[in-house]
Amino acid sequence: MPHAELPITGYLDRFSHRAGEGFAAKVSVPGGGPVRARLVRVISGDPNPEGPGLRFEDLSGVFEHGFAGRHQPVRPGSYAIVANPPRRPAGPCCWSALVMLEAMPGDAAAVLSEEQPGSTVTLGVGPDGAWAEIRMGETALLLATSHAWPLRQWMRLWLSADPATGQILLGQQSLAGGEASLAQASHPGLVLPDGAGQLLIAARDVGCPRVHFTGRIEAPALHAGFCAAWAGTPPAVLAAWDFSRDISTQDIADIGPQACHGVLVNAPTRAMAGAAWSGAEMCWRHAPADYGAIHFHADDLGDCGWETDFEFIVPEGLRSGAYALHLTCAAGEDWLPLYILPPRGVAGAPVVFLASTFTYQAYANHARGNNDAAYKARVAAWGAYPHNPSDFPVYGSSTYNRHLDNSGIALSSRLRPILTMRPGFLTFNDPLGSGLRHYPADTHLLAWMEAKGIDFDVVTDEDLHEEGAALLAPYKVVLTGSHPEYHTPETLDALAEYTQGQGRMMYLGGNGFYWRIATMPGMLEVRRAEGGIRAWAANPGEYYQQLDGQYGGLWRRNGRPPQKLAGVGFSGQGMFEGTHYRKLPAAAGYSWVFEGVEGETFGDYGLSGGGAAGFELDRADFTLGTPANAAILARSEDPPASFVTVPEELLSHVTTISGEKADALKRAEIVHFTTPGGGEVFAVGSITWCGSLWQGGGFQGPVSRIMENVLRRFAAG
Predict the structure, then answer these.
(1) CB–CB of 673/680 below 8 Å?
(2) Cα–Cα distance between 434 and 48 in angstroms, integer?
(3) Distances from the Cα of 114 to the Cα of 143, 191, 557, angstroms
(4) Does the domain formed by 79-296 have CATH 2.60.120.200?
(5) Considering Cα of 704, then 705, then 706, then 707, what sign does the dihedral take?
C-alpha cells in the first residue's frame, strides 16, 4: 500500500555552507504545478501565542526562484545490487544464502533475485517458509516449502535448477541440524539467467512495487551445479559475497573467480553477528568472519536520491545565521532549514552558536505516536508546522524508533525530508508551555540574542567534526543549544581543545555529550550499547560501530563522561515538565552571575515544561571528571514525581555508583569553572533552560538576566 506524502517537501545536500558555496535543493511536489522558493532568516520557531511566535525575516530580495514542481518518489528499503553477475554457460546452477529472521514477514520477501530480460530467478522467504519463482517470459514457476520458518535461528536457503533435466529443488534447513524441508518440481525447456542482467540481494525488482526483505543475510552465493542436499562439499563457486569484508563501506566483495562486486543501497546495518558468532570476540575488527551478516530492512532509507531542482549560492556579505528556504505551491508550503557560516577563519561576532545538527539528525522524523486529536487541535490553533512523522512513515524514522522487525534503527540520514527539523514543529502537546525540542527549541536562544542585540555567528556539529578547533578559535565564547547529545571524537576533541585554551563555553542544555556516533557523508550511526536510557538496546557483540569500528554507546563508557568537558552530566529524567533552581552558598562569590536576580530561587516558569530545570537534568560529579575547582552555584529542587535516576548511575534500585541515594540524583546543577589555559565553562544542567529565557510576555526575568550577565562577560573576554 503506498504511503502518504507531503504536498510539497524537500531537503538540501547539506545543512551549512559559506559565501560562494551552493545549497542544492531537492524538492518533491506530488501534484505538480508552479513552486516559489524564497530565502528567510529564522528568528523564532516557537508558534506559541504566549511566546515569541513564529518570526522570519523575508529575504526574497536576496533570493527568490520559481520552478515547475514535480513528483520525486521515495524508495525505502535496503538491498545490494550486483550490476554484473557471474557469466556462465548453460548448465545447472544453485543459488544459496544463510538467513535469520527476527520477525515473520507479512508477505513474500526476496532474499536473492537474478534478473535479466526474459529470465528471472528469485529465492525468498514468506510467512509459510521458503519460496522461489523462476520466470521465463510469460511463464512463472512457483515453489514453496510450506514449512514454518523459525525465528532467531540461522537457516540455509537454496534453490537448484538444471535446464538439461528440467529439475528444480528448493530447500531450507537449520544450521543447528535436523531434516531439510524441500520442494521439488520439473519443467521441460527450463531457461535460467546466464549473468547478462543484474542480481539483487534482499530485494526483487521484477514487478511493482519492489519486494524487499527484512532480516539478516550472510554468505549469498551462486554455484555451478545442482545441489540436492546441503551436505559435504557444495558445487563449484561462481560467485560468493563475503559480507565480513569492507564492513565500514557500502561495498560488498565477491570472493569468487569473476570478482562480481556489488554496492549497498539505502544503508543496511553491517557489523552484525553472523552464523559463526560464538561470543568469544566482541569486536568485529578482531574477528571479521564472525560478523559476516548484514541486517537489511524494508524501511531503511539512506538517501532519497532526488534530483536537484534549484541551487542557492550564498552571496557575499550575508550575515552568518539560521535561515530557511521557504517553499510554496498551490497545495501547501514547507521550509528547508539551513545555516550560513562566516568566512573561513573570520569571526563576524565574539559569540558563536554551535547548532546541534548531529542531534537533530539522530532524532530526525522521530515517530512518537502522540499526534492525537488534542495535539492536532493545538497545532491548528497555533498555526504550528502541520505535519507529523507518525503520519508520514515514507520519509523514514529516527534512531529512537525501531524497524519493522523490532530491531533498533542505528543509522539516520539527512538526505531526506526531516519533518521534526522545521520551524514551528511541536514535539509534545505541552500543557505548561510550547512543547518544542531540538531545532525549534534552540530558536529560543537565537530569538533571545536577537532581542538583546547580541551579535552571533552560527556553525554546526558537522562543520566542527570536519574542521576541528580551528573553527572555534576566532571566537570569545561558544554557545551550545538545549540538547547537544550526539558527538564524534572529533567534535569532543575540538571543544576540549577550545576550552582548555582560552575559549569560553556556555553549555545551555541537558543530556549533552552523551552518545558516541560515527559518520559517513549524509549519515550518522549510533550503537545503543550497554548503559544509558535507551529507546532500544544493541544485541551483545554488536556494540562496535560499522562506520569506524569503534566501541559505540555512551561517551561515559568510552572514558569521556560529559563532566570532563562541561562539568555536569546526565543523571535524571522525567516527563516534559520542570521545576526551579535554588542558589547554593557558592553563589555568594559569583555576584557577577546573579546581578539583578532577587531571591534565593528562580526559574519556576518557562515555555518548555513550565520550569527552567526540567525533562533531562545534568549534575556535577567530581569522581566522573568535574574539575576540582568547579563551583556549584545553584541546584534544582522538588523534582516532579515522573523523574527517575538514569540507569548508568545505579548499582541497585536504591544505591548509586557515587554512593548517593538514587532519588538524590534527580537534580540539575549550575556550575562554573576555569581551565588551566585560561578558558571558562558555564553549564546550566537542564534541557528546558532556554525555554525560561521568556517570562511574562518577553525575554526577561531571572534566567534571562543570568544568561545576559554571563554571556556579556564571556564575550568581553
Answers:
(1) yes
(2) 6
(3) 16, 13, 44
(4) yes
(5) positive
Indicate the domain borders of the chain: 79-296, 412-418+440-716
Confidence of residue 207 (pLDDT cuts 50, 70, 90): low
Q: What is the mean pLDDT of the chain?
A: 96
Q: Is the pLDDT of residue 361 over 50?
A: yes
Per-residue pLDDT tens over the stretch 109-142: 999 999 999 999 999 999 999 999 999 998 999 9
| DSSP E strand boundaries for 481-611 | 486-487, 504-507, 515-516, 518-520, 523-525, 569-579, 581-583, 601-602
pLDDT by residue (tens digit) across 322-357? 999 999 999 999 999 999 999 999 999 999 999 999
Rounded Cα distance, 322 and 442, in Å: 11
At position 104, the amino acid (one-letter code) is M
User: How far is residue 25's CA from residue 312's CA, in Å, rounded to a whole number?
Assistant: 8
Contact 277, 265 (CB under 8 A): no
Q: 3.90.550, 3.40.50, 3.10.450, 2.40.10: which CATH number matches 412-418+440-716?
A: 3.40.50
Q: Name the residue among 267, 527, 241 with its Cα closest to residue 416.
A: 267
CA–CA distance from 235 to each of 154, 167, 227, 243, 248 (Å)? 21, 16, 7, 20, 31
pLDDT given at position 209:
61
Write 273-276 long-range contacts (CB < 8 A, 24+): 273/539, 273/541, 273/542, 274/98, 274/154, 274/216, 274/218, 274/219, 274/243, 274/244, 275/98, 275/100, 275/154, 275/175, 275/218, 275/219
Q: What is the dihedral of CA 529, 534, 539, 545, to 10 degrees?
A: -40
Length of the chain: 717
pTM (two decimals): 0.97
Going by C-beta distance under 8 Å and a sequence separation of 6 or more, which residues neighbour residue 105? 125, 126, 127, 213, 214, 215
- Which candidate, 395, 642, 653, 409, places its Cα nearest to that of 535? 409
